[in-house]
C-alpha cells in the first residue's frame, strides 16, 4: 500500500487531525506526507517526527495562502507522478474542496468525513455517518487513488518520535490561479470544537438567571443577551479549568449570546470530545446529532424531562447558575488548579 | 446576472430514518429541500436583488423532486429545471457534478452558481467544488457574504481560523454558509406562482451525455449502535456535594 497524507495547516498552524491521518497511513504501509505552503519546513520536519517515510514539500510563495485551484492542481500533479493507492486528509474546510477537485482531475472519487474503516485488499472500506448520523454507511471508491478525508478525533494520534529526521523531497507548485486572497480576519474566538477533548456547552437556559440585576438603560433584548453573557462566563470558567472549549446550542447562537463558530449540532459542528457537558440545553434533535458520540456526556438542566438527559451518562437536575460554579470549584480542587 | 442555485431534495430533518436489508426508509416523513440549500437560494435571491438578473433553481432527482424546486420558486426563484432520467442510478458526487456542469452549460451565459454547504442525507459536501472543477471555473467555498462588482465576485469565506476574503472573476461557483442570512419564507404569491409552474425536465439525451459510471458506491448501510446506559441522575445535599460526586464519577471514566 502506498499512501499520501495531506498535512493541513493555516499560516503554519496545524490542523491536529493531520497527524491522525498520518498515523492511519503509516499503519497501512509506506506513507508520504504532502506539505504545501511558503516557509513551511517546520511542518515537514514535524511530519518526519510523526512517522512519515517521505515528505513531499511544495514550498512556494504561490502557495502562501490556500487557494482551491492552485492547491488542487499541485496535488493532482503530485498524485499523477506518485500513483498512490490512497490519499488521506483530515476533514477541514480546505481539504473537502481539495480532495473533491483533485479527485475530479484524476477521474476518481472522494469518501468524505469518515469515522471508521477496514481494508479489503488495497481498497479502503469507509464507515461514515449519513442522514445526520442517524445511520452509518460503508462505502468504497473503486478508482485510484482513493481520496479519503478523516473526521477529527475518529482515529488515534500517532506518538511523536523526537529526533526522527529526514530530508524533504521538493516538488513544484502549479501556480495558475483563478482566485485571489485579499485579506484575513482571525475569529473573534479561536475555538476549534472538532479537535477539543472537552466541550462545555450552553443553551437558551444560560440567559435565565433571575438573581442578576442588569445595568440600567438596556432594552429587553439587550438584558437577555447581558444575562446570557454572564451565564457563558460561568461556562467559560468551567471549560478553562478542564482545558476545554466552549460550545453552544443553536438557540444560544440564534439568541445572539455567542458567535456561530461555537455552535454544536446539525447546522453547526459535529463533535466527538471525550467529555461533553451540556448546561441549560434542552436537547433538540438537531443538537443531539451533533454531540451524542461524545465518550461521556453530562447534562445539567432544571427540567428533568429535557431530551438532553436521554443522551447523557450523568445528569444533574437543578439550577446551572449555582451548580456550574460548584462544579468548577470541585474540578479545580481535584485537578489541583 | 444569471444565477443558478443548485438544490437537492432530502427527507425532513425530523424524520426517523431507518435501514433494513440495505434499503433506507423514512416512513411518512416528507421530502423537503435540503436545509443547507435554502441558504443557496437565499444567497442567489440576495444577489438578484442587489444587481438584477434571474435566479434558476437546478436539481437532480426523481419526478417528486419537483416539490423541492417549487419551494425555491415560492421563495422567489424565477425558473426551475429538473434533471431526471431513469438511467441514473447510484449517482455519486462526481457524476452529479458532471451532470450539473452539463446542465449549466446548456442553460448558457451563467454568471454564478451557488451551492449549499452539504446535504443532510449523504453529507459529502463536495459536489460544489467538483462542479467548479468540471466547469473549469473558480471555486469560492463556504461564503458568508457575497458582493459582485465590475464582473468580479468577492466573498468572505468562513473557515476554522476565521474569515478570509477571496475574489474571482465571474463566472464562478460558490457555496454558502449560514452567515449569508436566514432563508426567507415563501410568500403567499410565491406559493401560488410555484403551484402553477410547469417545471421542465431534462434527460441525459437533452444534456447530450451518458449516465456517469459511479466511482463511489455504498456497500452496506447500518443502524448505529445505541447507547446502552441510562442516565444516572446525581443527587445530594447541596450543589457542592453533587459536584463532588459528579467529579469523582467523571474522574473514574478516565476522560480527563
Secondary structure: helix percent of chain B: 25-40%
CATH architecture of chain B: 3-Layer(aba) Sandwich
Helix content of chain A: 25-40%
Oligomeric state of the chains? heterodimer
| Spatial strand sequence of the major β-sheet of chain B | 11-10-9-12-8-1-6-7-13
**What's the CATH topology label of chain B?**
Rossmann fold
CA gyration radius of chain A, whole angstroms? 22 Å
* Separate helix tally of chain A: 8
CATH C-level category of chain B: Alpha Beta
Please give the count of helices of chain B.
7
Sketch the major β-sheet of chain A. Answer: 7 strands, parallel
Structural class of chain B: alpha/beta
**In terms of per-residue confidence, which ranges of chain A show pLDDT below 50 for 5 or more consecutive residues?**
none
Q: What is the fourth-level CATH superfamily of chain B?
A: HUPs
Count of spatially separate domains of chain A: 2
What name does the CATH topology of the largest domain in chain A carry?
Rossmann fold
Low-confidence stretches of chain B: none
Query: How do the helices and strands follow one another from N- to C-terminus of chain A?
Result: EEEHEHEHEHEEEEEEEEHEHEHEEH
CATH C-level label of the largest domain in chain A: Alpha Beta
What is the straight-line distance between the termini of chain A?
Answer: 47 Å
Overall, the morphology of chain A is elongated
How would you characterize the overall build of this protein?
Chain A is 29% helix and 27% strand. Chain A has 337 residues and is an alpha/beta fold. Chain A has 2 domains: 2-170, 3-Layer(aba) Sandwich (Rossmann fold); 193-335, TPP-binding domain (Rossmann fold), CATH 3.40.50.1220. In chain A, the strands form 4 sheets. Chain A has a 7-stranded parallel beta sheet, with helices on both faces. A 5-stranded parallel beta sheet of chain A has the order 15-14-16-17-18. In chain A, strands 8-9-10 form a 3-stranded antiparallel beta sheet, with no helix packed on it. In chain A, strand 9 (123-130) and strand 10 form a beta hairpin. The model of chain A has no long low-confidence stretch (mean pLDDT 94). Chain B has helices at residues 35-51, 66-75, 93-107, 127-135, 188-196, 204-207, 239-252, and strands at residues 2-7, 9-11, 18-20, 23-25, 31-33, 54-60, 79-83, 112-115, 139-149, 152-159, 162-169, 172-176, 201-202, 216-222, 232-233. In chain B, strand 10 (152-159) and strand 11 form a beta hairpin. At the A-B interface, helix 3, helix 4, strand 7, strand 9 and strand 10 of A face helix 3, helix 4, strand 9, strand 10 and strand 11 of B.
Amino acid at each position: 500500500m502506498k499512501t499520501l497524507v495531506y498535512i493541513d495547516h493555516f499560516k503554519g498552524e496545524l490542523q491536529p487531525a493531520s497527524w491522525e491521518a498520518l498515523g492511519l497511513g503509516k499503519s497501512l504501509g509506506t506513507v508520504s506526507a504532502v506539505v504545501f505552503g511558503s516557509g513551511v519546513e517546520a511542518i515537514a520536519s514535524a511530519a518526519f517526527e510523526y512517522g512519515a517515510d517521505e515528505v513531499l514539500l511544495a514550498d512556494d510563495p504561490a502557495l502562501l495562502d490556500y487557494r482551491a485551484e492552485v492547491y488542487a492542481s499541485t496535488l493532482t500533479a503530485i498524485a499523477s507522478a506518485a500513483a498512490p493507492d490512497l490519499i488521506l486528509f483530515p476533514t477541514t474546510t480546505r481539504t473537502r474542496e481539495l480532495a473533491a477537485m483533485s479527485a475530479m482531475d484524476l477521474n476518481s472519487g472522494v469518501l468524505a468525513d469518515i469515522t471508521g474503516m477496514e481494508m479489503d485488499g488495497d481498497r479502503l472500506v469507509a464507515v461514515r455517518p449519513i442522514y445526520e448520523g442517524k445511520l452509518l454507511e460503508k462505502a468504497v471508491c473503486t478508482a485510484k487513488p482513493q481520496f479519503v478525508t478523516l473526521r477529527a478525533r475518529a482515529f488515534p494520534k500517532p506518538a511523536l518520535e523526537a529526533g526522527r529526521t529526514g530530508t524533504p523531497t521538493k516538488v513544484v507548485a502549479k501556480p495558475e490561479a483563478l482566485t485571489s486572497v485579499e485579506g484575513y480576519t482571525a475569529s473573534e474566538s479561536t475555538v476549534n470544537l472538532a479537535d477539543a477533548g472537552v466541550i462545555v456547552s450552553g443553551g437558551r437556559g444560560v440567559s435565565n438567571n433571575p438573581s442578576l440585576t442588569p445595568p440600567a438603560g438596556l432594552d429587553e433584548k439587550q438584558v437577555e443577551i447581558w444575562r446570557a453573557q454572564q451565564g457563558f462566563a460561568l461556562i467559560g470558567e468551567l471549560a478553562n479549568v478542564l482545558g476545554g472549549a466552549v460550545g453552544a446550542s443553536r438557540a444560544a447562537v440564534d439568541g445572539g449570546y455567542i458567535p456561530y463558530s461555537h455552535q454544536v449540532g446539525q447546522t453547526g459542528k459535529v463533535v466527538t470530545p471525550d467529555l461533553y457537558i451540556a448546561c441549560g440545553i434542552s436537547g433538540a434533535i438537531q443538537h443531539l446529532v451533533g454531540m451524542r458520540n461524545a465518550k461521556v456526556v453530562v447534562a445539567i438542566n432544571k427540567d428533568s424531562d429535557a431530551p438532553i438527559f436521554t443522551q447523557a451518562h450523568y445528569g444533574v437536575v437543578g439550577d446551572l447558575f449555582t451548580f456550574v460554579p460548584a462544579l468548577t470549584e470541585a474540578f479545580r480542587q481535584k485537578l489541583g488548579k | 446576472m444569471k444565477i443558478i442555485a443548485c438544490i437537492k431534495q432530502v427527507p425532513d430533518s425530523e424524520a426517523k430514518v431507518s435501514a433494513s436489508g440495505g434499503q433506507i426508509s423514512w416512513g411518512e416523513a416528507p421530502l423537503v429541500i435540503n436545509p443547507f440549500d435554502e441558504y443557496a437560494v437565499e444567497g442567489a435571491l440576495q444577489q438578484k436583488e442587489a444587481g438584477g438578473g434571474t435566479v434558476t433553481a437546478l436539481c437532480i432527482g426523481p419526478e417528486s423532486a419537483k416539490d423541492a424546486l417549487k419551494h425555491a420558486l415560492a421563495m422567489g426563484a424565477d425558473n426551475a429545471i429538473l434533471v431526471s432520467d431513469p438511467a441514473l442510478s447510484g449517482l455519486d458526487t462526481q457524476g452529479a457534478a458532471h451532470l450539473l456542469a452539463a446542465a449549466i452549460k446548456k442553460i448558457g451565459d451563467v454568471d454564478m452558481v451557488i451551492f449549499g454547504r452539504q446535504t443532510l442525507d449523504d453529507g459529502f459536501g463536495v459536489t460544489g467544488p467538483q462542479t467548479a472543477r468540471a466547469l473549469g471555473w473558480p471555486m469560492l467555498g463556504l461564503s458568508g457574504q457575497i458582493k459582485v462588482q465590475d464582473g468580479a465576485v468577492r466573498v468572505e469565506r468562513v473557515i476554522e481560523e476565521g474569515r478570509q476574503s477571496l475574489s474571482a472573476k465571474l463566472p464562478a461557483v460558490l457555496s454558502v454558509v449560514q452567515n449569508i442570512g436566514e432563508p426567507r419564507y415563501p410568500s403567499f404569491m410565491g406559493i401560488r406562482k410555484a403551484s402553477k409552474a410547469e417545471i421542465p425536465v431534462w434527460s441525459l439525451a437533452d444534456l447530450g451525455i451518458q449516465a456517469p459510471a459511479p466511482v463511489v458506491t455504498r456497500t452496506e448501510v447500518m443502524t448505529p449502535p445505541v447507547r446502552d446506559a441510562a442516565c444516572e441522575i446525581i443527587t445530594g445535599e447541596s450543589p457542592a456535594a453533587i459536584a463532588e460526586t459528579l467529579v469523582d464519577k467523571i474522574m473514574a471514566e478516565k476522560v480527563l
